[in-house]
Every structure is written in C-alpha cells, then in structure tokens.
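To illustrate the input format used throughout this study, we show a single complete record. The first block contains the structure-token representation of the backbone; no residue identities are included at this stage. The design step must infer an amino acid for every position from geometry alone.
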C-alpha cells in the first residue's frame, strides 16, 4: 500500500505545481513585479512547507539528526538537483539581483550555519539570530520589489482572485503530495534498515524538496527562470533562517559531528551555483547536467561513508 500512496503523492505534486506556478506567475504580472521576487518569497516559502513540518516536528520530538539533516540535505538537493534538472530542461537565466544579492546571502547564511554547529548544537539564542536574519532579508527583498515595478509588462491571463485560488489549491496539492511521498518513502527506507541521519540526508531531504523540484521544473518548462531559480535559492534561505531558527527556538538542535562535513559540502554547492550563474548569467544544459552528476556523487558518498 505504501508504494501506491508514494505514486499518488507524486501525481499530486506534479498537478499541484502546474496550478501553483500559473497562479504565482499571474500574481507577479498583476502586481507588476519581477517573477523572481515571487519565487524568492511566496513560492519559496510555500514549497518549503514540508521541510518546516518535518524538521520542526522532528526537533520537538528530540530527533535532531532528521531535523538538521533534512535541512542540510534539502539545501544541497535544491542547489544541485533542482537548479540542475531545471537547467537541463531549459537554461536558467540568472537575474542581476539574484546574483548580486540572494546567492551571496545564501553563501553567508550557509557559512553562518557551519559556524553555529561546530560546538555540536544550535541554541535558542542562535535560533533567534537566524529568525532576525530572515526578517532583515525579507525587508530587503520586499523594499527592492516595491522599487522595481515593471510598467511595460503584459496583462496576466487570470484575474487576481483566480490567481490566488490557483496558488492556494496548487500549494495544497503540493503539500499533501509532498507529505505522502515523505511519509511512505521514510517507511520504505526504515524497512531497508537505513539510519536516522542517512534517512534525513537522503529520503526525507529529497522527499521534502520534491515541491521545489517539481515547481522549479514546471516554471523552467514554461520559460519562467525567475520563479525556477528564485524558488530554489529562496527555499535554501528559508530553510536555514526560518525553519532551523524556529525549530531551535522551540528546542535546541543537536548537531551530529558528521553533519559538519555535509554543511561544508552545502557551502561548496552554494559557491558552485554562484560561479555557474556568473558564467554568461545563466546555467546552461551542460552545467545543469554537471550539477546532477555532483549530487549523484554526493549521494554515493553519504551512503558508503
């Protein structure tokens, strides 16, 4: 039965992403703001809902290995697989703001997380600092959005009310599908005898990142690089600053020693994506394939280490 529910979850993810991307793109047109802003905020937060529910619940239950491993694994997946597969389908153009601001924020926040877990724990005070960082980041993004209105943009295909309905219904299907995939994939993984840390870095991380993957892939297929790239990078920032921040405020998060290495790999992935984005201001198909291969190598490494 869990295999059937796993497949049903994937179906909900795919169909939900179609509605979600159409609604988000339409709202960007109506508000006359770059779609990348919607990708960095509304879409990123929406697709990160599975990570939030899993990591916060796991942290409260005292299972820090899954809580922290899920966030680190999800971010590596977002950077290498979500952007990589999207670029293979359709070259992902990197807007000036996302290169000059958001990718640097991602590197800085990832480095901050590395420093925070060196002592083996993310404390409540450190969690508050992460939440403050998220607040500052959102203020910067929203202020920039208000100053970069697009006056010559074509009219949206849907009205505001229809766009919001499509966004909400799509997000609901994405969250429901993501939860079904994660729950049943985790059951299958446990049946195969995988450890909590490995489950958090692989099955749970990939499962909770499927909304980002399907949403960015759908956006790339429809030619909306702003949502595709903004969703992936924005989700990484939201995962660390908001989800880990809130989880550690509720209860301090223990950091296993082996996760320090994975956090270093996450930082390396962040730097690689910045370098690729700077090369011609886009990530092309060959570079996307390279990212996918790097993630495959990382997966082999954590399974056999």
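Output of the design step:
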């Amino acid at each position: 039965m869990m295999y059937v529910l796993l497949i049903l979850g994937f179906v909900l993810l795919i169909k939900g992403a179609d509605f979600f991307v159409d609604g988000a793109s339409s709202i960007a047109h109506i508000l006359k703001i770059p779609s990348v802003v919607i990708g960095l905020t509304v879409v990123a937060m929406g697709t990160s809902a599975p990570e939030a529910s899993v990591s916060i619940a796991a942290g409260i239950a005292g299972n820090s290995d899954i809580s922290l491993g899920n966030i680190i694994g999800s971010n590596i997946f977002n950077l290498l697989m979500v952007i990589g597969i999207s670029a293979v389908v359709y070259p992902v153009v990197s807007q000036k703001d996302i290169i000059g601001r958001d990718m640097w924020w991602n590197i800085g926040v990832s480095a901050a997380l590395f420093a925070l877990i060196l002592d083996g724990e993310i404390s409540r005070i450190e969690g508050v600092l992460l939440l403050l960082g998220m607040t500052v980041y959102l203020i910067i993004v929203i202020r920039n959005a208000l100053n970069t209105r697009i006056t010559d943009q074509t009219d949206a295909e849907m009205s505001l009310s229809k766009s919001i309905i499509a966004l909400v219904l799509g997000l609901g299907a994405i969250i429901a599908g993501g939860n079904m995939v994660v729950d049943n994939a985790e059951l299958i993984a446990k049946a195969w005898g995988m450890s909590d840390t490995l489950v958090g870095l692989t099955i749970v991380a990939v499962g909770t990142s499927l909304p980002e993957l399907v949403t960015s892939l759908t956006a790339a297929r429809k030619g909306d690089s702003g949502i595709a790239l903004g969703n992936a990078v924005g989700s990484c920032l939201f995962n660390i600053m908001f989800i880990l921040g809130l989880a550690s405020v509720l209860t301090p998060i223990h950091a296993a020693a082996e996760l320090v290495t994975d956090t270093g790999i996450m930082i390396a992935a962040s730097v690689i994506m910045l370098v690729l984005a700077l090369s011609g201001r886009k990530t092309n198909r060959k570079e996307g394939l390279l990212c996918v291969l790097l993630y495959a190598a990382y997966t082999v490494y954590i399974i056999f280490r």
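Structural context for interpreting the output: The first strand starts at residue 92 and ends at 93. Residues 160-191 form the longest helix (32 residues).
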